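Run ABC transporter ATP-binding protein through structure prediction, thanks.
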Amino acid sequence: MKAPLLSIENLACGYHQQAVVKDLSLSLAAGEIACLLGPSGCGKTTTLRAIAGLEPVTAGSIRIQDRLVSSHHHQMPPEQRGLGMVFQEHALFPHLTVADNVAFGLRKLPSNEKAKRVRECLARVRLDDMEARYPHELSGGQQQRVALARALAPRPALLLLDEPFASLDLDLRRQLAQELGDILREENVTTLMVTHDQEEAFALADRVGVMRHGNLEQWDSPYNIYHAPANRFVAEFAGYGAFLRGKVTDSHSVQTSLGELTGRHQDSLLPGTEVDVLLRPEDIVADETASLALPITRRQFTGASILYHLRVSASETLLCQTDSHTNVLEGDTLHVRLGTKHLVSFAVNSE
Ligand SMILES: Nc1ncnc2c1ncn2[C@@H]1O[C@H](COP(=O)(O)OP(=O)(O)OP(=O)(O)O)[C@@H](O)[C@H]1O
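Sure, done. The structure for ABC transporter ATP-binding protein is below.
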């Protein structure tokens, strides 16, 4: 089997004797795009900084292209790791033009090749007409594109992006995130990116890592993170959803207050086990002919769809997503049926 481009084994690192990243292992194949997600302070940036060689490692190892770059006993300097980086506050050189900023990492190339690569990278990020401008003459989004072009120019083995669009407004962020996917795939550059935005991660990544308290809870495809979450934390963190209490009846069903839910269980749970079943908004289907009618406690109109919060009991609320023409108002009831295709259930009180 081909060696992964990035391989991290049992990584631990932190600050001032305090462990921030604990026993983290993952691998990334060449050309793959991966996103790290997780609540603020869970160690995403620290992981990226350790890969970049900016933080020492207290245990475990990091390999890039099968070369050991970090372990407790060995730390290769950042500039020898073959990385491109765009970090949150990654300032461009203010006294250099856009073209000179992008050319910065290409000092070893002959000048005609350098100029060609600069033009190519600026075209990739759609800034080909801005070569002569200075950073202060660009918008925030354009500056981030230049930072990306600069990081891509030397054809890094691995690109590390730490919330590159965090400072931009939501519309621009979404647009750039979409373009970023195209740019990365055209350049065929292996990428590890930190983001707060789960939708951005799902849209962009081949692989998503969900972190909590310095641990990597799951490293998987976006589909599996969403539909087969490893635990309750991942289920709640990645995407909308609600839990409904029930009791396992057999390998294909759970009895709940709303009737029997059927589908294959993700894990083997013994009959009689009390569980919380994860129901995503698309598992609850609005259907005027359905006999089940639940009161609407909240209605979130997003333009393309509406997310209804439906009261099941004092402690249970379900979410139902419909197209935005379903014009039922808060306080009314919505007729729904349960449309689960598989069961994601966690034993009550499980982590
Ligand atoms: N230079 C530092 N010195 C000491 N502690 C630090 C330092 N940098 C980060 N930390 C601490 O390490 C923990 C992890 O921080 P990190 O920046 O990796 O989190 P994160 O998941 O990237 O968070 P965010 O999403 O808010 O950027 C936090 O508790 C933070 O306070």
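The chain has two domains: 6-235, 241-347.
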